[in-house]
Amino acid sequence: MATDKTLNTQPLKATDAAGKQKFVQFGTIEHVDVTKMAGIVPLVEAMKHMAYSARDLNRAAEIYDRMLRDKECGVILCLAGSLISAGLKKIIVDMLRNNMIDAIVSTGANMVDQDFFEALGFRHYVAEDRLKSGLYDGELREHALDRIYDTLISEEDLRICDEATQKIFESLEPRPYSSRELLREFGAYLDKNGGPKCDDSIIHEAFQREVPIFCPAFSDCSAGFGLVAIQAAANGAPVASWDGGRDFYELTQLKIKNPETGIFMIGGGVPKNFTQDIVVAAEVLGHDAPMHKYAIQITVADVRDGALSSSTLKEASSWGKVDTVYEQMVFSEATLAMPLIVGYAYHKAGWKCRTGRKWNTLLEPVAVG
Question: Does residue 321 carry a catalytic annotation?
């Protein structure tokens, strides 16, 4: 790799097309469209008079609607887990189109391996039930198919995605970049080359609306392979690189410039901690930043496992990160809870009083194209 600028120096073994087809014949993942489901509102309102997670979900939906009606509040969406491959992409795109979020903090996989991947024209496939057992994973590997629980993705297509990230990085001025800057370049690339297949891309929609996307573990995806490739090919010469510290600084600047914030978290992990911590980071920089005024988290993590994903929002309050007046944990799987919460807020139409904040413009201008 050190002497070859092509990412895939070891091409995949040729696969049997007919054998591969038997695994992907069950169709592609289709992204749910909550804008067409007005019946969500009475369903979620009925949950207010139920118990357990139903009542929690109702309160979370009401808090999100309240966030959107608060004209001073900037809304940050946090994404962890394999969400785009699961059919949630259009929900996030519609949130962008309707000014329901002002920034995204995500895993790299959601943005690059899944959203950017689909914007290049590739798809995720429905896996038949028997594949969930894991007994056929060796056979899937022989056909260059990667399994995400009950979803399949072509490794051959992913390699093309890897190469596209490398091309983007090679086109940039050699210097350190935040993931926000890099993903804005991804959006510019799609704007120039993508065509109709980008119509429902999160990265492309965010680019057009100047909504920043941060990936605080950016190299943990196809972008990482692109970064590795250009580093290896450079033989010590300066190249574009990712600066994680710049990520944290930039997101903290948004908190300083727009002190009142709300966070809508799907899963936990790095995006959750990174976003909660900007309150503390702003204080470290000498600013009297208030805690996040609103906070919702959808998670299936259990507090007994001791992991960050399961730490409660009330616990975050003890760190001075999240206020406890409008906070709600919803212990549910994301593909069940997110459509209901976002669909409720969409059809309640509190977002109609909001204008796009275009937070990219608050940060250092970057060259794109």
Answer: yes
